[in-house]
Amino acid sequence: MTASAKSTASTIFCTTSESVEPRRTAIIVPLMGRNLEQLTQELGELQAAGKSGAADCLEWRLDHFDRAFLPEACQQARLLISQLSPLPLIITYRTDGNPGLRQRLATAAAYSAFILDHVLPLKPSWVDIEYSWGPDTAAVLLSACHQKGSSVILSYHDFDRTPAAAELDKQFQQMTELPADITKIVTTAASESDYRRLLMAGQQAVRLHPSRACIFMAMGEAARVSRFLAASCGSAAVFASLVTESAAGQPQVGLMRSYLDFREPAAADPEACVTPVPSRIYLTGFMGSGKSTLGALLAELLGYQFTDTDDLVCQLAGQTIPQIFSQAGETAFRMLEQQALQETGRQAEQVIATGGGIVLNPANRRFMRQHGCVIHIDITAAEVYRRIRGDQNRPILAQLQTPAEIEQLLQARQTAYLSDCDFTVQADDRSVSHRAWEVLIYLFTPR
Questions:
Q1: How far apart are alpha carbons 280 and 322 in whole angstroms?
Q2: How many domains are contained in the chain?
Q3: Which pTM does this prediction carry?
Q4: Which residue from 88, 109, 301, 379 could staple onto 125, CB 3.0 to 4.6 Å apart?
Q5: Percentage of the chain exceeding pLDDT 70
């Protein structure tokens, strides 16, 4: 690698072996314009919205550019980008997951020729090289890019699934054996277990190869929060969009910048206005709405402690909730619940999942409003019935035998739920990742 390429790599993306404190996760913003006019609009949006300071690097998706095979048109576009933005530029021509482009560059030789003849003459700071064309092709292109002064992101994308853990580990290991500047693996996740598997593999790759920067994240609706969690797992960069997502689940750049400035305050721009986040976030909602599941994920995303008031009640009483109800009654339980809630005011930086009936006491609602932010999880009676029927650990449920009875109690509490909440998310038909993503948008949007 040339000195200039090494300099480009180290000044944008930190590795765990570098004595760079504090660590800063880079934000890459894709440019998706199909022509000069659309590219101009995107770059104008970046400047007009004050987002240029939010991004650390741009990625020109040359595969979206209509005239990608016309050198003169590409040179015009490259000049336009350099005139309108001072940010380092990655050039990507993504054939993975695109049968049409894969057919046009049908062989590794054709892909190599395109990178050598069309991409490198544009003098990008970085070139994305697809590992799917084979290690030999990648090695040749790596050498050519470094000789021309461009750093390399060696990338692998699986647009169908997230492979098994052993397969992911092997993929990271094989790619790390080549002298790229960054290893990037992106998969498609259908569930939380999918994106968790990828994040764990990425974390392990960072531990095993501390001198190699890694980028890893999952695509898909179920994996929206993986792009936020990736930063705390050691990914050297995250991708964020201007308007059009370059991949499913990609957050907008302003949201990502606000989030990273909050999570990495020592690395934030001293002149940046960091969005204040409440020190306590109270989750309310009917039984079975998923308060504990969402609360645990939000706490992980924010670096907060997770607290469940039901657990605090059990600790105070030395009994389970069914035991409290059967031996002391609901009135005694509600008194313990209020005491548990007041305990949460002693410590900051908490996400607190509350009991389904905690809002029945107006004093509890006032306490939550005074000590933090209240987020309500809305759910239908039919969904409640589907989730919790047969659950022996919910004493109130013993009185509710049908969806109609659940609906009656739910409606009786609805005013109390909604009257003192700051924000509401819907539980039905939405993954916990999507609900957490909605809460992040609320928390990190300036008001």
A1: 28
A2: 2
A3: 0.88
A4: 88
A5: 88
